[in-house]
Structures are given as structure tokens and as C-alpha cells.
Write a structure and sequence with these properties.
The complex is a heterodimer of chains A (114) and B (114).
Chain A lengths: L3 E4 L2 E4 L5 E7 L5 E8 L3 E8 L6 E2 L6 E5 L5 E5 L8 E8 L8 E3 L3 E5 L1
Parallel strand pairs in A: 2-11
Antiparallel strand pairs in A: 1-3, 3-8, 4-5, 4-9, 5-6, 7-8, 9-10, 9-11
Chain B lengths: L2 E3 L4 E5 L4 E3 L2 E3 L5 E8 L6 E7 L7 E2 L2 E6 L4 E6 L8 E9 L4 E4 L3 E6 L1
Parallel strand pairs in B: 2-12
Antiparallel strand pairs in B: 1-4, 3-9, 5-6, 5-10, 7-8, 8-9, 10-11, 10-12
Classes of the chains: A mainly beta (114), B mainly beta (114).
């Protein structure tokens, strides 16, 4: 039981390049989330998927797209990377209806855009 | 909308002593949850303790306890018998609404000194 996994762990991009961050969970959770963490800002929600087939914008969605490929996988795509997207990205998942509605986090991806 | 405020950017404590981290929040939800997460240098987000808003009893987890003051919208974390391994960034977070999105504070960097 790996929990929430993210790939890659580190990535360096040049301005204008595109890439996809991958996230998968093996806990049969319904909901999945993407957050970004910037110095001094805490974590902020980019997009979320309440269930398979649905996605919604969070607090900071500009410059990103997401795909809920199936129940297990939720990817985040940067179509044209900008230096402002340099950040640490976290994926999380939640099983709806449980006590506390707790979210479980992946290990994060450190992305640098030059 | 939810907001979470952590007014202490940094704190330090001597090993074996007790320290309290402050958190205030605001929410329009009637049913919500509050969390403290620990983020060590490894970057992994680790759940420390959680509280359901409708429960009056303060949550405890071993050396960690909270002081939940619902009317004041305050949710402080007390760490007893501090250990060197407690050195980390601590985030207060709230969740609620239909999709239980997490809203984080900016964090408190706690250093435990030997």
C-alpha cells in the first residue's frame, strides 16, 4: 500500500516548456487535490476532483490544467511554464464520508522554471 | 470562504519543555474540521492532530494536544516534552463545505534546541 505517489520528485524547466505532474493513489479514495507551496505562503489549492470525471478550480488555477484519468490518477499540466510557477507541488486524496474527511498527501514535486 | 491565520512565523523551545503554537480561523461553514500538519525538512506533510468542530472535547495525541475555542475561533497546538525531532514547520488548516478543501495558514517554524 504505497498511499499517494507523485512523479517526478524534481524537475527543472525552461520558460515556455510544458510538462505533466503525475499523481496516483491506491487507497480507493474519491477525491483528489493539487496544491502548491511557496515560501511564506503555506499550501494553496490549484484544482481538485471531487470524484472520477469531475474537476473544479481552486484558489490559484491560472496557468494549469488537470485530468482525472481514472479513480486512481489525477495529473496536473503546465502548458507553458513561467518562473512564477516555480514551487513545490503536492497531490492529496480523501475518502469521502469518513471521520474527519482527512486528506493524505504525496511526497511533493519540486519544480523550478528558469 | 475560509481563512487561517498563524501569527508566529518562528518559535523556539528547549528540549523537554512545552510550547504552544497559535492559530485562528474564520469560516462560514457549520460543519468543519481543523488540523495541524507537521512538515519536516523531508517536505512530507504529516498529520499531527485533528478536531471536529462540533466536538467540545479537545483532541489529544500523545505529547500533542489542542486548545479549541470555538466561539473565539482559536485552535492552538501544545507540544509537551519537546523533542529534537519535533523541529519542523507546522501548519494549521481548516476544511469544510461540500468538498472539504483544505485552507492552510502560512506556517510556524518550530526549532527545538538541545
Amino acid at each position: 500500500n504505497a498511499g499517494v505517489t507523485q512523479t517526478p520528485k524534481f524537475q527543472v524547466l525552461k520558460t515556455g516548456q510544458s510538462m505533466t505532474l503525475q499523481c496516483a493513489q491506491d487507497m480507493n479514495h474519491n477525491s483528489m487535490y493539487w496544491y502548491r507551496q511557496d515560501p511564506g505562503m503555506g499550501l494553496r489549492l490549484i484544482y481538485y476532483s471531487a470524484s472520477e470525471g469531475t474537476t473544479d478550480k481552486g484558489e490559484v488555477p491560472n496557468g494549469y490544467n488537470v485530468s482525472r484519468l481514472n479513480k486512481r490518477e489525477f495529473s496536473l499540466r503546465l502548458e507553458s511554464a513561467a518562473p512564477s510557477q516555480t514551487s513545490v507541488y503536492f497531490c492529496a486524496s480523501r475518502l469521502a464520508g469518513t471521520d474527519y474527511n482527512e486528506q493524505f498527501f504525496g511526497p511533493g514535486t519540486r519544480l523550478t522554471v528558469l | 470562504a475560509q481563512t487561517v491565520t498563524q501569527s508566529q512565523p518562528e518559535m523556539s523551545v528547549q528540549e523537554a519543555e512545552t510550547v504552544t503554537l497559535s492559530c485562528t480561523y474564520d469560516t462560514s461553514e457549520n460543519n468543519y474540521y481543523l488540523f495541524w500538519y507537521k512538515q519536516p525538512p523531508s517536505r512530507q506533510m504529516i498529520l499531527v492532530i485533528r478536531q471536529e468542530a462540533y466536538k467540545q472535547q479537545n483532541a489529544t495525541e500523545n505529547r500533542f494536544s489542542v486548545n479549541f475555542q470555538k466561539a473565539a475561533k482559536s485552535f492552538s497546538l501544545k507540544i509537551s516534552d519537546s523533542q529534537l525531532g519535533d523541529t519542523a514547520m507546522y501548519f494549521c488548516a481548516s476544511s469544510g463545505g461540500s468538498n472539504y478543501k483544505l485552507t492552510f495558514g502560512k506556517g510556524t517554524l518550530l526549532t527545538v534546541n538541545p
